[in-house]
Amino acid sequence: MIHLGQLNTLEILRETPPGLFLGDEEGNEILLPNKYVPASFEIGDKLSVFAYLDSHERPVTTTLKPYMKVNEFGLLRVTALSDYGAFLDWGLEKDLFVPFKEQARDMQEGKWYVVYCYLDEETNRLVASSKTNKFLSNEELTVERFDEVDLMVSRFTDLGVEMIINQKHKGLVYQDEIYRDLKLGEKLKGVVKKIREDNKIDLSLQHIGYKNIEPSAQVVLDALQRNGGSLPLHDKSDPETIKERLNMSKKSFKKAIGSLYKQQQIVIKSDGIELK
């Protein structure tokens, strides 16, 4: 099957005046216009091409690579406005259309927006939407605490910066944990810091190696979580109290809280430690 909005690896079937006809293993055919035909080729060669609808709504392919594909989020610029919606530059000859009903707010020519590209089942056309929240869901999470994830900056709020996680979920990096300027649509790595009871996700941009955290530090973190975020233990606590509470030596405890403090995960106070 030839998939619109995606890269397809297709076989060259024949050469015609308009261009090359390509086909898949199921007998489907599609045109690669002359302007995209490689300088040298042979019938039977395989080509990687992107399938979409041309200006006449005909399925065609191109060797150009779009800035985003179907079922993906991306940052695109508005090139033109019409009575029906806006058009975005996504790296192809034909711009990507955003109907008015799919605009979170009225788009303006020349401005950039985070959008989601999808195949409209009613028209079989590739369109985009800036109403990104309806394409994200935290109901069934595919991430866990401490997972390293791919992020995209989607919105700036008073609390912090909202992020798209792995093109599937949404999360938040709090303002006091952001140590550099972020740009709309910027892609970066992050870590799932906390998953709340309502499946809201707190994120961290610090490369702190949660997956490789030493066992003693993990024990302390788990104990903090079980005790509402605080423990009445510190580097001057009695060794027997630490052993009774955490089943570890005072030396291991001091090393653990030192590591967690450097990773900005805890606050050390005179009467104990707390999650930051």
UniProtKB/TrEMBL annotation:
Residues 4-63 form the Conserved virulence factor B first S1 domain. InterPro entries: CvfB_fam, CvfB_S1_st, CvfB_WH, NA-bd_OB-fold, WH-like_DNA-bd_sf. Residues 218-275 form the Conserved virulence factor B-like winged helix domain. Pfam families: S1_2, WHD_CvfB. Belongs to the CvfB family. This is GntR family transcriptional regulator. It comes from Kordia algicida OT-1.
